[in-house]
Each structure stands twice: as structure tokens, then as C-alpha cells.
Specification:
Helix content: over 70%
Structural class: mainly alpha
Largest sheet: none
Number of strands: 0
Distance between the termini: 39 Å
Shape: elongated
Length: 123
């Protein structure tokens, strides 16, 4: 198993866990409004990059590394401002988003092509 495959598995697992956490959080566990709210869509938006991540598409990893920072930011904000179950769910969201962010960056680095030193070739 290559190192890139390990990063892909880590990114896939954390993305799937984050999807389930967001859907459960806003759907049943502690929704913004009783009976659920439109915030459940934050979990649905994570379905967009799912197949690209599972297939190891480098472009998907690139834009997801930028997109996932919103989830990291929301988790950190709600972990420091809320209490009880919401705070625990927010900590989980922040941890999963951080794992996903690091995994995507490491996958991108592991799958980049060989460096071409143009300066050395031009000399």
C-alpha cells in the first residue's frame, strides 16, 4: 500500500464520517430548530466531492482542501461558543474537518509529479 493510498483512505473515511455527523447533528441530535432545519444541507454539500475523493481525483482534493476550511471554522466557532451536546458535536466536526484537511494536503503532495528544475536546465 502506497503512502498516497493511505492518505486517500484517511480522507475518504473522515469525509464519510463528517457527512454522517453533519446529517445526524442537524437532522436529529441537536438541530437548530425543533424538527430539523435547512442546516442539514451542510452535510449534503459534502456529497459533491465524495466520488472524486473515493476515486482519487487530484483536482477534487485540491478544491476540497479549500472548501473544508469552512467546516473547520464552523466547528471551532460552535465548540467555543455553545455548550452541552452541541459543543461535543462541534468538536467532532472540527476534528474530522482537520483530519480531512491534513489528509487532502498530504495526498496532493504525495501525488504530485516530479519536480522539473527549469533554472538548472536553462543554465
Amino acid at each position: 500500500m502506497t503512502i498516497a493510498t493511505r492518505y486517500q483512505i484517511s480522507a475518504s473515511a473522515s469525509l464519510i464520517a463528517l457527512i454522517f455527523l453533519c446529517l445526524a447533528w442537524e437532522g436529529w441530535l441537536a438541530p437548530l430548530k425543533p424538527g430539523g432545519s435547512w442546516m442539514i444541507l451542510k452535510g449534503a454539500f459534502l456529497l459533491i466531492p465524495l466520488f472524486g475523493i473515493l476515486r482519487g481525483k487530484r483536482y477534487t482534493y485540491k478544491w476540497l482542501s479549500l472548501f473544508i476550511q469552512f467546516y473547520l471554522m464552523e466547528g471551532a466557532l460552535r465548540a467555543t461558543s455553545d455548550h452541552g451536546l452541541i459543543q461535543q458535536l462541534a468538536i467532532g466536526e472540527a476534528l474530522l474537518a482537520a483530519i480531512l484537511f491534513v489528509s487532502t494536503i498530504l495526498f496532493i503532495r504525495a501525488t504530485r509529479g516530479p519536480k522539473v528544475e527549469k533554472a538548472a536546465q536553462q543554465s
